[in-house]
Amino acid sequence: MPTQEKIDRVAELKDKLERSSIIISTGYSGMNANQMVDLRRRMLDGGVEFVVVKNNLLSRAADAADIPQLKDVISGQTAIALGYDDAAVTAKAVNQAAQASAGVLAVHGAVIGQDAAMQPEEVSRLADLPPRPILVALLLGTMQSPLYGLATVLTGTIRSLAYVLQARMDQLQPADAAE
């Protein structure tokens, strides 16, 4: 029989899972309390909420939040990193923390929205992406390039026609008028 405390914890986790843009499952075996406090502080500075959870409570919260694919990346001692804004920024913060912890923190996988669970390699690739503003700028530059080229070609053709007409007008003018 579940206790009221566990029911409340599942409801709280469900709310966090529903609000998050990315959920990264990590393993933290071998980490002492001081390392955990330092890790949480570093994650919080990166805008990431880092929560240690029991697997069965997380599994129930995932079912309640309609994110069953999260259960595919839960194993061993589990802590989840919840990002509420940009998924790439969250993945970058977790990836940097995993590298700084010298193998103590291991990424098991991630879930973004209703998509299939991501493997650790995919989370690492997501962390390597540039920030969202840079991606938007690259996209806009790519979209503007053909339009700029078309405008250049069209104005070049009109400019060439104007030069030809001006040269012909200069040829037709009497030599006395030019002086």
TrEMBL record:
Q: Which GO terms describe its cellular component?
A: ribonucleoprotein complex; ribosome
Q: Which residues form the signal peptide?
A: none
Q: Which InterPro entries match?
A: Ribosomal_uL10 (IPR001790), Ribosomal_uL10-like_sf (IPR043141), Ribosomal_uL10_bac (IPR022973), Ribosomal_uL10_bac_type (IPR047865)
An example Pfam family from this entry, by short name, is Ribosomal_L10
**Which CDD domains does the record cross-reference, listed alphabetically?**
Ribosomal_L10
Which keywords has UniProt assigned to this entry? Ribonucleoprotein, Ribosomal protein
Q: Does Transmembrane show up as a keyword for this record?
A: no
NCBIfam families xrefs: PRK00099.1-1
**PANTHER family, per the entry:** 39S RIBOSOMAL PROTEIN L10, MITOCHONDRIAL
HAMAP family referenced in this protein's UniProt entry, alphabetically? Ribosomal_uL10 (MF_00362)
Family statement drawn from the similarity comment of this UniProt entry: Belongs to the universal ribosomal protein uL10 family.
Q: What is this protein called?
A: Large ribosomal subunit protein uL10m
User: Which organism was this protein described from?
Assistant: Geodia barretti
